[in-house]
Give the backbone structure.
Amino acid sequence: MLTRIQSALNNLEQIHGITVLWACESGSRAWDFASPDSDWDVRLLYVHPRDWYLSVYEERDVVELPIDEQLDLMGWDLRKSLRLLAKANISLHEWLVSPVVYREAEPAAWLRTLATEAFQPLSACHHYAALARRGLSAIDAANMVRLKRYCYALRAVLCCQWVVKYHTQPPLPIGELLTDILPDGEIRQAVDELLAAKRGDGEGATCPRQPILDRFLHGELARLESRFPANPPRIRRERLDGVFRAVLDWRG
């Protein structure tokens, strides 16, 4: 699969005339609770030659491959990515801290630094809380729950806890979140059992409702919502333009 991913990235570069700046894993494989049959969620940031941006009409700023059962590959153009960073897009922030990296060019470090500067903790908290509420609503309505749904709700709550505590983008691997936020105890044991089952079973595996997890997730979400931090001032346009031009100079 790693060879296939590299080949797909090369093909995208050739077909679209782009240069991949950053390619990473964004799904359960980056979060470290992939099932044996989990697909590969590859996300990338790329740049065109300078003249592509000097047009009266803007062209499509997304590239992708048709989704199949194994590989889901999609990416955003540099200008789109910078605009999304200015809007505190959490998906993009997560891509840039992924521990599973398939390709990294020099400007990726500039984008990662910019993402740290542009991080908006209040916006991140609202994002993760919304994910947690959506997951918990589905859990509450079921008798048998997909392991995947529990893991997603758990991760969202842990990320929200991290942002409230540190005001920074949370790490992607769930083990890092747990070590810091839930190092031991009865709830941690239940979480470890859940994660072991998710890693060992298929994507569609289910389990009975877990009252200890239900109480923890609902309780933490309610507690956190009164503690969301404020956002700092938005990153300045001049800073974004500077990185944009620097990457274009690097690309040539």
User: Anything to note?
Assistant: The radius of gyration is 19 Å. The chain is about 55% helix and 15% strand. The CA atoms of residues 135 and 152 lie 7 Å apart.
